[in-house]
Amino acid sequence: MALDPVTQVSGRAVFIPGADIDTDRIIPARFMKCVTFDGLGEFAFYDVRFDSETGGKTAHPLNDPRFEGASILVAGVNFGCGSSREHAPQSLRKYGFNGVIAESFAEIFFGNSTTLAMPCVIATAADVVKLRDAIEANPATVVTIDVENLRVTSACGLNFPVTMTDSAREALVSGRWDPIQELLDNAAAIDAKAKELHYV
Amino acid sequence: MQGAGAPPTPAIFFTMGKSLFQKVWDAHTVGTLADGRTQLFIGTHLIHEVTSPQAFGMLRDLELKVKFPHRTFATVDHIVPTIDQDAPQDPLAAEMMQALRKNADDFGVTYFDLASGKQGIVHVVGPEQGITQPGTTIACGDSHTATHGAFGAIAFGIGTTQVRDVLATQTLALEALKVRRIEVNGDLRPGVYAKDVILHIIRLLGAKGGIGYGYEYAGDVFDRMSIEERMTVCNMSIEGGARCGYVNPDAKTVAYLRGRPYVDMSDFDATALRWLSFASDPDARYDDIVRINAGAIEPTVTWGISPDHGISITETIPDPAKAATPLEKASIEEALAYMKLEAGTPIQGVKIDVAFIGSCTNGRISDFREVAKYIRGHKVAAGVKAIVVPGSQIVAIQCEQEGLPKIFTDAGFEWRGAGCSMCLAMNPDKLVGDQLCASSSNRNFKGRQGSPTGRTVLMSPVMVAAAAINGCISDARELFHLENPAAVA
In terms of CATH architecture, what is B20-292? Predict the structure, then answer.
């Protein structure tokens, strides 16, 4: 299975404020009553985008027409914490996001996102603030995550380094972000390991 | 270098000891992948109805089989109603239950279904069947898989695409974790439970403090804990940001597992020795060590919307004006606004609407026994809905054999069937509006218990019972006279 390398992603960006944004926030549990991931996009951040009493739109950034069509999500610390639900990055992907820039990521979310070819890069708090201010000032500005060189650049002149684990970067830029084929190819080694383990 | 004629030095003197994590990781490493990640063998795969159907769908699309069906174990927990378990009124829930039935049948996977009498929360079922064993790797599409670390297993939650990977290959592409040893030494004070210990640790180290780490829980307190108490602690490793947490296996671990259905008893002594050999070496190297004084831990409750928003029951709700950083200030303000709580006021006395005892954190027989010791002669306060949900059908039967349901119902609690219930709102047990719930579960996120404005206060089961009886968040030590150490197990 040859996969497309993900060397960079670009698009307009939206900043979602708050620390520790958990995967229940990204996709409330009731929308996980499904047997496919189809259709999850419309439920991303549902309970903070819509008032639970009136059903009306809230002041959430994803409801702000200035950020409509944004494909880069910018956030604070510990983004994607909590439940391991892949439904969270799936819903972001289907909503239209191609990449996330945050101060830090919860590990399971990070891994799930990488496997969906959605790069998650870590920026300093100061750079996140600069990026937030830049996109607030000019929501049309195009932001690029350069996965290959681990930098974030913007049409408005921002250019700062970001980090990501070596293995995730390598998996993305070499088109190996979905590891299934490589795992399958090692069938003989898997069988040998299974024989070694007493409990298997 | 040794000079000629010098006595040979045993190689062991030059080898740094290994932690349990390193031993288990090394024993399960299949190879290194092109991107540098380890291909790790997953000896035990637990699955449930919520995060597996898409994985089976991918398997069908790729025309793949389950590689080791005998190492895959399924149960149904998240969506099961706790009243009339096998009759979900929700057609989507029924569809998910049917999908798991079909997938288990089509792919030859063991399924502890409702009719088996062994159904329950996946993290309760694995240990009680003896599937969870020391020195093994365990994965499940559920972040609370860390629970199984209580046995000295490396156990962690995975996404659905990874569920596919384990089904198809019994392996995962993973990066090794660093290991932080968390030592809690000294004596816990009366009325302080395993739940308080882990809430205290998360409060100290933060909800993101464990990112990149596995936690090794060590020291007097964990040595003394029962296996079920260790499960409570390991369960919430993920709330501290650590993907897994474990306690080294010891004689209690062996005793707990002896004779359970999936434990091979043919040469049990050898099996037990092998299990114990995975315990961290005394000279193991750790990436970090944290030491905590057990005597400083008090009954702990959350006040906010992240599990690290914890305070002792005797403290007041944090004041954003006293925050150290603008970020912390904003975080406290957001939490207080959501929780509708006032800065600087005592957490004790905050009125509750719902009380929930159960979940993979605190839904085991020891949890119900402990609460039942104290609630006789008490009544749930008027206007409080209090529900008690055993973690598995087997736990429910144990409770019945010991007469516990009657003790709870006499005190005004509702006694339910096994499932995840009100921990996560995928079944009919949900908060309504901005109800405030005293909960023995693991997450106080916004909306976690099913209402977008519902409020959760995490605490130990005994503290939940005290809150239910008083109608407000309370110090169980006072209500139940727990200060007498002899009265506390």
Answer: 2-Layer Sandwich (3.30)
ipTM: 0.96
In B, minimum Cα distance to A24 occurs at B448
Q: Which domains does chain A have, with CATH numbers?
A: 8-196 (3.20.19.10)
Q: Where along chain B do its domains lie? A: 20-292, 304-487
How far lies B210's CA from each of B195, B215, B241, B399, in Å? 18, 8, 4, 35
Between chain A and chain B, how many beta carbons pairs sit less than 8 Å apart? 215
pLDDT in tens, chain B (489 residues): 333 444 554 444 556 899 999 999 999 999 999 999 999 999 999 999 999 999 999 999 999 999 999 999 999 999 999 999 988 899 999 999 999 999 999 999 999 999 999 999 999 999 999 999 999 999 999 999 999 999 999 999 999 999 999 999 999 999 999 999 999 999 999 999 999 999 999 999 999 999 999 999 999 999 999 999 999 999 999 999 999 999 999 999 999 999 999 999 999 999 999 999 999 999 999 999 999 999 999 999 999 999 999 999 999 999 999 999 988 999 999 999 999 999 999 999 999 999 999 999 999 999 999 999 999 999 999 999 999 999 999 999 999 999 999 999 999 999 999 999 999 989 999 999 999 999 999 999 999 999 999 999 999 999 999 999 999 999 999 999 998 645 444
Q: Hey, what amino acid is at A136?
A: E
- Read off the pTM: 0.95
Q: What is the torsional sign of CA A103, A106, A111, A113?
A: negative
- Please list every residue in chain B whose beta carbon sits closer than 8 Å to the beta carbon of residue A35: 53-54, 57, 95-96, 99
* Secondary structure, 3-state, B379-402: CCCCCCEEEECCCEHHHHHHHHHC
| Fold of the CATH domain B304-487 | Aconitase; domain 3 (3.30.499)
CA distance B183 to B233: 13
